[in-house]
Amino acid sequence: MPDTPMLAIENVSQEEVIFDSRRVPCGLEQFPDSPARAIREAGGEIILFATFETNWFMAGPDWASLRPTCVSAGRGAENSDPEATDDKFWIQALYSKDGRDVLALGSHEYLGTRHPGQCVVTEPEGQRPPCWFSSITQYVSRGDARHFKPAAAAPIVAAPQESYSPRSARRVGFFTASNIIADRDHLYVLVYGEGMAGQPQGNCLFRTERSGGASRWLGWDGTDFTADLSKLGAAPNKACRPVEGLHHEARSLVRHRESGKFVTIFTSRDRSTTGVFYSVSDDMKHWGPQKLLLEAPLTRQEPGCEPVYRYPSLIDHDAPEQAFESVGNRAFLYSVKIILDGCRQSGRLITRIPVTITTSGT
Question: Cα(176)–Cα(219) distance, rounded to whole angstroms?
């Protein structure tokens, strides 16, 4: 990596709770289950997703006034055909040039255990379910960020490069997406996939044209962006090559405006320490060592039954872009905090903690 200034990120204040699933009566199931993503609509309204399969969202005229709505921004049809790619999806990335036409990427989850006859594997208790077949899919909303439908032109970003099997005891496919950022003429996103059919496990960097509309995404193959993984069950023309140095699901991707460096946020373990970590890159393909940002339990099995942190993301409330793609020297670490009662989940919070970002010399 080029020898450029390094970044240090530190939390500087107490966390603030902006959503509590135990205190919001609503007919729509509201369950924080993804990293926080935000859009500033054309009229100035802030829309925040940290969503469940219902793709509910919070809205407000400013960051201090965000309140949950009882509205779904789009739902899968729970189609029992795995090739339809229309079971359930979680919005995990947003982009807009104008706050009117909005692009979203979703983590599409097909679970054979939800559909009669589509899974013959006994579901192991306390482990990942079998017959889990996942893709990253693309959606559009016209006029605002509240009404997403599958993109007609390019509905799939990355799909399993093998056919669905009702006998699969492992999860297969591409599971998570960072937020989208723009760089020159392209949009970029980090997508995490399990190893399959010649495709290595890891975070792949995808890009598409910076038109603002839905178009085909191509993955980095180690030399260029030529890996087309949009065909479900097809042998890949080229596998995407996972980026170097980043071994956990990248949950957030932003650019630091002062230094031009890229930052990703994820949960991890470093020796005996668990929590939220960050890594820094000059080109999004090669990442530096992970550094601790917030020490916290990651699983409910850890001693003490303390609250568990998941799905971290970094958002600068003052970022100039509609989708808050960059950060200055101050930002917020958003997380989903799982509250435990007797080591059993009793609720989920969306929290944010102020952080500072400083630049050191070469």
Answer: 15
